[in-house]
Structures are given as structure tokens and as C-alpha cells.
Amino acid sequence: MDVDHAEDHALSAHPALGRRLDLFDTSPLVGPGLPLWLPAGAVVRAELERFALELSLATGCRRVHTPVLAKRELFERSGHWRKFSADMFPPVRVGGEEFVLRPANCPHHAQVFAARPHSHRDLPVRLAELGSMFRSELSGVLTGLSRVRQITLDDAHSFCRPDQVVEEVVTALRAVRHAYDVLGIRVHRYRLSVRGAAQAHLGDDAVWASAEGALREALAELGVEHEEAAGEAAFYGPKVDVQVLDGRGREETLSTVQVDHVQPERFGLTYTGADGAAHRPVLVHRGLLSSMERLTALLLEADDGWLATWLSPVQLQVLPVSGERHGAAARALADRLSADGLRVEVAADGPLPRRVRAARERRVPHVAVLGDAELADGSVSAGAPGAAAARVPVAVLHEGLLAEVRGRRRERSGFSA
């Protein structure tokens, strides 16, 4: 899967939010465009990666792991060297051979498919990887997490028979819809990106017509209205781009599904058909969640850093009214909730209003206040920091948080008894 930067736009707010919320930072010794995910940011990324894994398994993928570099010859064969060599990092010579950091993951997945023989009954073979790829971007265009030099892509490739292509595209687009529903992302428009007259593409007219026809059929089956964009196709095939708006109202491509007859041909990929002869598979590329970097930037911008509770680095902060009188009970509550996998902190120092404000500034979705009255009846005063609190039994808080997190709900629990 290729990430096409033609639709990228610089975001202004998420770099500041990322630093203020201790999610990510940069180092001049590491270099621009290579963000460091801090512990809090690593939690957000891990949750998105877990979601990506579940989506890939639910849609029939098997996970693979492939190297981040390969011989230059691999990318010459795929066509990426001719198309992207100016945007790739320079080759490194090892033992008389040239190796390069990959600009895309699909050539590696083609080699995974080629590693074993396949029958027509085996197809589709769906391979998924949260794989890193690299672009030698100019320093002047690098922005926070939205434009970086190392891209970690939620990437999958389906090697299928020609009669399976439409259903593979439909499956991918339905998975995109589900993911966006969970994440609270609104589709701005669907774009069918096709060849342009002046652009150099690999493959003949017949395979391009077949690929474009399959994408149109899939969009029609889903009842999806779309616009066509000439010249926006990948060099090896047309694609459906799912367009969204960033925090400043600017359009960008987040998810994409591409149909490719070219790379199976260039790599000589085959499967044994029902007639016993060798046949060429079709490759359907898909990126459901885009890159972890771009997706995190979009989610941060969408609501000024307020992430859904299941994504939040700290899901609940327990605030004892008095650290001396109520601190032990607050820590016991935090331990009880943490034992179920919830991310809970205790903040006991300083005046209570100041701690509530600090929780709000850190975008902690829930706080629970413990004082004399709460200890007396086994309750807590729970709610969003700075908002009206509900006095509920500890068990209600516990069950409400678990339901919200495990269900990946966007709405915060009201914790009504």
C-alpha cells in the first residue's frame, strides 16, 4: 500500500497538543520527521494497533512480519524504484549488494505469497501487517505526526481470483465504515482515483479497465456516491480514496482500497486453477486505519485532544479530598480498577480544585472524588473533570468504566446508579 502525500495538509494544532499532553516529541539528535512516542502516546498507539489487529482478523487476514529494508532489485521489479526513487532514502551497500528502506510494504507481501504454492481453493490469501515504511521528505514539509519520514501503516493485501475482486473491495470498505463509526470519524466523500492522460502508469488498458470496473461495481453494491478524479490513481492501479476533513476543515485521504493487476504480473505470481493451469491473481491493497501517525493526528485535532476513554492514556483519576485522610482508600480503589486493565491514577497533592483543573488540562475523561461522605457509604463522586458529578456506588463506577472501555464507546458514561 502506498501513502500518497498529494492530499496531505499541514495541521497546526496537533503538534502543540501532542507536546502539552506528553504524547510525542522530537529530538534534534534523532532528526526531523522522526517523532518519539512518549509513554502516554505509546498507550494511544497501542490501543489503535490492537483495534487494527482485531479489524484485520475479523476480515479474514493473517498477520505477517516482513523486514523494513530489501535489495534495491525488489523495488525495481515492483516499479517503485522508477516511481519513488527520488523520495526514497539512498541505498546502503552491504556485501556488494544495495539495500534500501522500503517506501511501501506490498512488494514484501508479494514475496510472502510467492513463498508457497497456492490453489484456487486457497484464495483469497489475505496478509496484514502493521508495517513501517520510509520517505525521504524535505525538512520544510514535515509536520508533527501528519507528515513524517517513518510511516507505520495498517496495511493489508488480498491475493484473489478475478471473480473475487469486487467482494474483497466491498469487505474492505465495510470495514472502513465500521472503523470510522467506532472512532467517530465522518467520511467527507469517496473518491474513485483513476488514470490521467498525461501520467505514466504500468499495465495495459485492459487491466486498468478491469480494475476500474471492479471498483465501480463495489461502490454501486454498497450504494456509495463518489466522485472520480483523473490522475490520482496509484502507478499500478486505480483506487477508492476515503476523504475526511482534518481539524482545520481541510480534506485529506485517510483510508484507501486499490486494485492492482500489475505487481502480480511483474513478480510472476500464480495460483493453480480448477483446470490445473497456472493463473495470475489480482492484488487488492487496503489501508483501513491509514498510518498510526496520521490517524493519531486526526483524532487529536478532532476534539482538541479529548480522546475517547478507551484511547485515553489515563482513563480515570481518583482525587482524595484529603491525601492524609482519604489517600489510602483512593489508592485501594485505583488498585481495584487497575486489576481489570483500566488505566487509573491517584492525584492527592494540592487543593482539590487545582487537581480538577489539572485533570481537565490533561484531557483525563473521568475523575472520582473521595471524601468523608463517600467513604462512609462506599460511593464516589464521578464525572468529567469540571462537570457535574454523580454520587454512585463504587461498583457502578467500575462497571460503567469497563463497559465504556471494552465496548470502545465514544460517549462517556454518566454513572447513574
Class per helix and strand makeup: alpha+beta
Radius of gyration: 24 Å
Could you name the ranges where pLDDT drops below 50 across 5 or more consecutive residues?
Answer: 1-12
- Number of beta-strand segments: 20
Q: What proportion of the residues is helical, as a percent range? A: 25-40%
Shape designation: elongated
Overall residue-averaged pLDDT value: 90
State the end-to-end CA separation: 48 Å
Biggest sheet character? 8 strands, mixed
Strand order of the largest sheet: 3-7-8-15-12-11-9-10
Total helix count? 13
| Assembly annotation | single chain
Furnish the topology, listing elements before pairings.
Blueprint: H1 14-20, E1 24-25, E2 36-37, H2 39-58, E3 62-63, E4 69-71, H3 72-78, H4 80-84, E5 92-94, E6 97-101, H5 106-114, E7 125-134, E8 150-160, H6 165-183, E9 189-194, H7 205-222, E10 226-230, E11 239-245, E12 251-260, H8 262-266, E13 271-272, E14 278-279, E15 282-287, H9 292-302, E16 316-320, H10 323-338, E17 344-346, H11 352-361, E18 367-370, H12 372-377, E19 379-383, E20 390-393, H13 394-406
Parallel strand pairs: 3-7, 9-10, 16-17, 16-18
Antiparallel strand pairs: 1-2, 4-6, 5-6, 7-8, 8-15, 9-11, 11-12, 12-15, 13-14, 18-19, 19-20
Helix pairs in contact: 1-9, 6-7
